């Protein structure tokens, strides 16, 4: 199997090393084309994310070309850094390379196991190689297997279910109350780091209208500008409360900032439209009584942490199940490879038989005695000769099939190649050689 | 055929419940397929009865309950085809199955409206009434799902049901338009009913019929609900509670009234009160 992967990732190299082999999106096609020009006939797909840079290749002897390929991955940085980076590269070949791609695409090899971005990045890497015309004939099958495997892992296991960071759990809560975040107003009370992370997640999921209330107007203004919102004077909190669909509070105030009475007044004006309150301050910013008001849903830091921990535990428990799927797909790929391998030898054998047949017939049918034969007779002779060849090749082909099933394909392949002279391209046996 | 249909509904109910409570929510599609198969089976039964009696098959307990169940199933299937909404089947399909089961004792009872009033207007009246019942019931099931999700959110029950039921806003939105459309159809059905009384010189017994009274109360309740949502812009838990109450009212007007009193709308196969 001539498949291999050469790469570094967050497990094998620190960030400063990974930076040396990091490719920006627009640099990848050129890098691929350089490699394709340097190694004609080989197939390449380059995956470069913040956590890994991996070169998937086919049709190339990895042992012989490893230093050159590693150098190609580090080409854009100073060569002085290359020796330091080289030991951090890993190489996997054959089935190990296949299994590696399946685990990467299924997010089993990610820093946050189960994250779904990696599948998109692998798809993008494959598409870029396709556009650059460098993936060759073997890699597409492998990558399509990887996509199918990842799809199965996501559909059949809990590996990607639920969010695992506290800030993104706030989005999970918001999505259970609201259908479309783009039409919702998010109010941030206090410019704490955690609140900003939660706001960032909400904005990434479509929230557009952002109100920032902070005691320091400058700080509030800066936060609002970072997320396309507007800063509101802190004193106007109660006035703006009815407008807010989602309130995230994280002030350092020693007392409650959002009072239940103000919330009750806001709800009268909202006419039953629900509100999500997320209190991530310590001590708490929102009076617990506010959570008892109809259509108000109040969550604290503990709730967010609990859900994040539950989701993480669920993902961990799904890892084993996901690995089973990866191994299953890997085995499927291996079988497919075997059958394809048999196909290649058989095709060579058929071509060889046809070539021998045609060469001999051409020579003999041109002789004086046979040249006078009518064309239908000549066709009969050609057909007969081809049938004899096919019959003779049937037994070796059957043996090859058995060998593939028993895992002995390589030995039989070599034997067949030598016996029939398949490796001597363009030199089929001639009548003279036969003599 | 009815047994086959009921078996399909039972299978669909179990699959829908599994989709909500089971480990993997993958059985929802199979549940829908079973529901569609059950629907076809019962529709076949009703068509057979319509051909046999040469009239509208909605005049005994079995026929009326089956018509209602089929209308509700069709409304749900259409909703799932056009605007998929997860998790609702686990509430709706078992409910529909119970309704169908309730009608089975009247399976072999033949009934029909007096030939004099069996015309296209009566057919339209019945059709609109069942369509209205279906849409209003579907809205009520969504309201029940809203209350379940509201409870999960309020009490921080972050389990499978919380995860698999849709957002409150989505439930509220679908509830809104279903109520509006259902109310319009109910109004149309009532107007057609009144027209029928007038056309056939109906007597006082129609106007003082308890079913007419119960339907009027139901209509008023839904009118208030639609007004509060559309004009006063009310949403949330209270509206969901009133919508569920609307279903109880509707069920009383549709079937309950026949259990407690005599009605000129009476279905054969249901025992009237003495």
Overview of this structure, please?
The complex is a heterodimer of chains A (435) and B (274). In chain A, helix 2 (28-38) crosses helix 6 (117-132), helix 8 crosses helix 13 and helix 15 (375-405) packs antiparallel against helix 16. Chain A folds into three domains: 3-156, Glutamyl-tRNA reductase, N-terminal domain (Beta Polymerase, domain 2), CATH 3.30.460; 166-294, Rossmann fold, CATH 3.40.50.720; 341-434, no CATH class. Helices cover 56% and strands 12% of the residues of chain A. In chain A, helix 12 links the parallel strand 8 (246-249) and strand 9 (275-279). The radius of gyration of chain A is 33 Å and the shape is elongated. The two termini of chain A are 39 Å apart. Chain A has 435 residues and is of the alpha/beta class. Chain A contains 17 helices and ten strands. Chain B has 274 residues and is mainly α. Chain B has one domain (2-260). Chain B contains ten helices and no strands. In chain B, helix 1 (2-21) runs antiparallel to helix 2, helix 3 (61-82) runs antiparallel to helix 4 and helix 3 (61-82) crosses helix 5. Chain B starts with a helix and ends in a 14-residue tail after the last helix. In chain B, 45% of the residues are buried. Classes of the chains: A alpha/beta (435), B mainly alpha (274).
